[in-house]
């Protein structure tokens, strides 16, 4: 946990970083923070109006001009990820980082009642889509001198919890994918791969999962950004295959 990390103002200068789910919640805050530290950010998500709002906020703050890449992990195919890699290659020539942040909660419900279509939808958005997107983008990451892949986990991706169903299983799969890829990259390429658990954070997803909770007791997306910046930038060089937390455990 690097919640007290003080990033240099130019931490991500000249870096090209992709953020998924960049239109809302933690992804939006991370995209703004990456841009304000110098990165050219590719904003990926499924709701174009929300991506445009993030885009406008980056422009208004005087950050490097971002790019918008509309994509819905639910419907996207293997071919779409290949096309995406081609487009990004033409436009940027390389990629210095991916924050895999987009995520779907599904339903908090006893496993016995879990709807199979919803289960597959959650696995598609949280695991399969990001996996094939990562495969397609590896050639671009290999063009970078120092690339960071951040996969978003959760407390329930490290210890299963009753009623969390596909979401919990998808985050365990995310941890597993991270370990496989990190082990393959180790010492072969300057690409580090780690998971980051944001911890309880004041967003729409958290509100849906804990409707009775006092949101004011939670950290905001802005509060947890130091760890997001540390892990994306050069100060985390050498950190590979780790399961990290963005905030200390709540007492
Ligand atoms: P939000 O629900 O606020 O944001 C999720 C983002 O993912 C949105 O931008 C959403 O787009 C995007 N998204 C969802 N489905 C798709 C899809 N099919 N294709 C493309 N984009 C999609 O959630 P948070 O900001 O809270 O969560 C961010 C990450 O952090 C997630 O991976 C979540 O699992 C994880 N996390 C969050 C915690 C918390 O307390 N908030 C705790 C632990 C983990 P749109 O807005 O257009 O729907």
UniProtKB/TrEMBL annotation:
SMART domains: PKS_KR (SM00822). Keywords: Oxidoreductase. This is NAD(P)-dependent dehydrogenase, short-chain alcohol dehydrogenase family. The keyword Cell division does not apply. It comes from Vreelandella subglaciescola. Pfam families: adh_short. SUPFAM superfamilies: NAD(P)-binding Rossmann-fold domains (SSF51735). InterPro entries: KR_dom, NAD(P)-bd_dom_sf, Sc_DH/Rdtase_CS, SDR_fam. Signal peptide: none annotated. Belongs to the short-chain dehydrogenases/reductases (SDR) family. Residues 15-180 form the Ketoreductase domain. GO terms for molecular function: oxidoreductase activity.
